[in-house]
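Please, structure for the following, as tokens.
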Amino acid sequence: MATQVHFTKMQGAGNDYIYVNTILYNIPDPCAAAIAWSDRHKGIGSDGLVLIGDSKMPEADFSMRIFNADGSEAMMCGNASRCIGKYLYEKGITQKDEIRLLTLSGIKQLKLSINLGKVESVTVDMLEPELADNSLFHQAPDLPEGTFVSMGNPHYVVFTEDIDSIGQDGPVLERHPAFPQRCNIEYAHVMEDGRIRMRVWERGSGITMACGTGACATVVAAAVTKRRGRDSVIVMDGGDLHIRWDEKDNHVYMTGPAEFVYEGDIEL
């Protein structure tokens, strides 16, 4: 007998995921569910599946697991973490305006901006970025010059005026031999008003409207290459995110919106 699972579709800057509360529903094969439900023609349609659960660690309040549209499990998603903050608060699961969220890349601190009982925006402490020796990547003749940044997941940021070529280059660069675990690819350029326009090819999902960790990686890459300072607005296909790389604690802070799209039930 088929099991009915209640889901919520949410989006942050156009990055849309299916959210399931696993405190209430068991998803025995999330990889298969992510593939089937993410299909935009035959399923719900999304960039992937996010499972919200209790935390087995006392240091965190809740946990998240995220599965890309191809069924692969991701380490972290900034846009999804903001949506989880809104989900937990507005559904009455927590009354906290600061939430500790356990992810595969560590515990992230969510700070909710609340007005009249609604979460207007969420700031996520994305912790410290990790930089690699980029000379290693520059030795690959078929790899465009860029900056490798880990935000708990791998990103390769290329500054170019031709950001739309990400659609052609992204699938090749994601699986380039220089990235044995595959990689998220960002194409970006600094606009005249100082904001940074960026498009992303996400590992396991392809082109998406936005990527929170990718926005963070882009600001870090812009700062280390002296294209911009440590505080920028990233303009993506689905909307804008404010990113600040703090000099005091070296943490990256991401602020942006989260929105409900719709809810429903689907057979497992």
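Residues 43 and 209 are 19 Å apart (CA to CA). The chain has a mean pLDDT of 95.
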